[in-house]
Amino acid sequence: MTANDHAYREIGATTLLAPVPAVLVSCRGKDPDSRPNALAVAWCGTVCSHPPMVSISLKPSRYSCGLIRESGEFAVNLVGEEQCRTLDYCGVRSGAEEDKLAACSLSVRPARGLLCAPAVDGCPAALSCQVRQEIALGSHILFIAEVVAVSVREDLFDQDGSLHLERAGLVSYSHGVYQRLGETLGFFGYSVARPDTLRRRMEGYGRKEG
Length: 210
Ligand SMILES: Cc1cc2nc3c(=O)[nH]c(=O)nc-3n(C[C@H](O)[C@H](O)[C@H](O)COP(=O)(O)O)c2cc1C
Fold this sequence. Notes:
Pnp Oxidase, Chain A; alpha+beta; 3-stranded antiparallel sheet
């Protein structure tokens, strides 16, 4: 064994991918006056940039699954530390049994570009999504959706109009545990950035570099 060798244990074929985003997906049936619902989703991803597209993967048994199929819409609401408990609640209780939004004192707001599904008020950002494709994979149905609009909470912009999503205290999910995103380690391209750029950008994130 060389100094670079590490020991590994096989744990079987499973979905260990981590961390993943933990988001609140809000939805409503076709009737715009019907009760909206939200569920926690960890199997959510960006799948295309032009057009902007995301995917969510849902078990057909989820009450929300029927609503999304009916309206062809949903909103992906990013979750900050303040919404973490709500996220968990919406992930363990079903809208088939209760009004989860009322139980969590959550209010909804219109999601631009969508006719039925609302966005959740107070979350750092909401992506308005229109379903383009549905693929039955096995235990889950993959919804591939186009992002038709995005709204971001005003306090996450600085005076110059730059978005600081790192200030939202976003929540990630890792093997059954919620974690707040923390220290900035770098930025896109930092491994090849010029020393002065690296220093300036990292100081902006509260870190000394170089
Ligand atoms: C952190 C977390 C992540 C979850 N991710 C998913 C997911 O990606 N897909 C899914 O079908 N269910 C997921 N669930 C389970 C649903 O959120 C849960 O079954 C919820 O009660 C369904 O609500 P509904 O019946 O009102 O639609 C997750 C639950 C939690 C707590």
